[in-house]
Amino acid sequence: MLVHQLLEASARRSPDSTFLIAAGEAHTFAAIDAGSSRIATGLQSGGIRKGERIALVMPNSVELVESLFGVLKAGGVFVTLSPDTNADRLAYVLADCKVSAVIASSALRPIVEPAVRWAPSVALTVWDGQAAADRDVTLQDFLASPAAGFDPPGGIDVDLAGIIYTSGSTGIPKGVMLTHQNLCASAWSIATYLENTADDVVACILPMSYGYGLQQVLVGALVGYAVLIEHSFAFPLDVMARISRHGVTGLPGVPSLFSTILQIPQIADLDLSSIRYLTNAAAELPVAHIPRLQAVFDRARIFCMYGLTECTRAAYLDPARLADKPGSVGKAIPNIEAYVVTSEGRRAAPGEVGELVVRGSSVMLGYWGKPRETAAVLRPGDIPEDRLLHTGDQFKTDADWFLYFVGRTDDVFKTRGEKVAPKEIEGVIYEMESVAEVVVIGVPHEIDGHAVKAIVVPRPGAALDERAVRLHCRARLPSHLVPRFVELRTALPRTESGKIRKTGLV
After folding, report:
1. Whose C-alpha in 53, 185, 336, 469 is 20 to 30 A from the C-alpha of 359?
2. Cα separation of 55 and 400, whole Å?
3. Complete domains list, the chain, with CATH
């Protein structure tokens, strides 16, 4: 099956069922299907042909969903980009994958227009508002057409469907190439272990420009559930009130989002009893957050997951095992194999730290235009011609083969000759009620080689000082893991995908 056929199938099966909820308005599967077909017609009329890349530079919205499916129906390849991007990064992406058209929010003209001028491959610009130049058109022009008459370009599931650029927090952004098979396989697997049904209402707060946010919509198209679309989490109480009002059953998030929820004083006044599950990915959910979240969402199951753009999702922990497997991300999701290998390439024994590798139908095709980088992470496996995704993340397993994230290979450093995995220290600091967020890094030190530094964001109104953090760690950690330096900040820098940006903190 192709990605856009997920939407078409749900529109045939349940045309009048709600697919998207945005700004208090409900949009049916039939309406979104028809709108995406009109956009496909407009793109083909504008000269877009099969395999050409179309950049989508928009916030979460109905228009973004219609445009994404419209691009696929026209035979194009979507390139989703965060509305928080800057002109330099956008220009780089447009040139890197030779984008033929851009569909963008009119509010982003100051960023999009200069980037388009620097990208000679762009022949068509489509705005969600008023056109700015003679060659520009608008989505409204497409959607106002009396009938959709696009020419289905054909295709098979191994064709390229989308390119999602990594956050680039440690270097030049890389375009992760995902086929129709990759995205459909991930959607099926996620829907399977979350036990999604057409009765679900799932909140999409995370940006659709990244895989985690995008999958909420793709799973909805597959299963037939409704998606509550939010632009951002800038006003968390308002978002949570809408989640309550619309009877949301699934709330996907990241640690920073859940940390913010736990800091909302009025959260106890909202009826959140409709929520049956929370999911966490992008970064590990601190173990200390789990009982606090369970107190707020007392009817919800919490799924701790692990994934990366290169395969969308790889592992999840059955919520029933939260108590006896604290800190674990569980085992591989359906139709995926994930295991730990040593530096010598053999499978690691329980307790032995190594790199997590992943194989399965959701593993990416490769990095756009970067064969060397692709070969570095997609390597031969035990089966001839098989390719394993080497994640670059350090893991270990317990005696039951449950997976535990140790840290990014790049994050591990040595102090006093001992290896330090920042995650262990961060987990201890998160136990402090007064801590909202923390990141641990190694900073150059003339005696220790590297010294442990903790950068801590206190909860609003909390009394916290550097000495309290060090005393807490000294009572729970070996001496070489106790932070030599503690810095208090009001916020931590983040990538466009919401991850903490460690580059520059040193």
Report:
1. 53
2. 44
3. 3-17+26-179 (3.40.50.980), 233-407 (3.40.50.12780), 411-488 (3.30.300.30)
